[in-house]
Amino acid sequence: GEDILAMTQFFHAKDPSRLVHYEGVVHNRAFAAITDMESRMYAKPWEIREYLESKPEKPFILCEYMHDMGNSLGGMESYVKLAEEYPQYQGGFIWDYMDQAIWHTDVMGRKVLGYGGDFGERTTDYNFSGNGIVYADGAEKPAMQDVRYWYASPADRAAQDAANAAAAAQADRTLAEAWQSRRTYPLVVTQGDGNLGVKGKNFEMLFSIAGAGPASLKVNGTEWLWRAPRPAFWRASTDNDRGCGFPLRAAAWMAADVFVTYNGMKVLEAGPDCVKVQFQFG
Question: Which residues of the chain have pLDDT under 50?
Answer without folding.
Answer: none
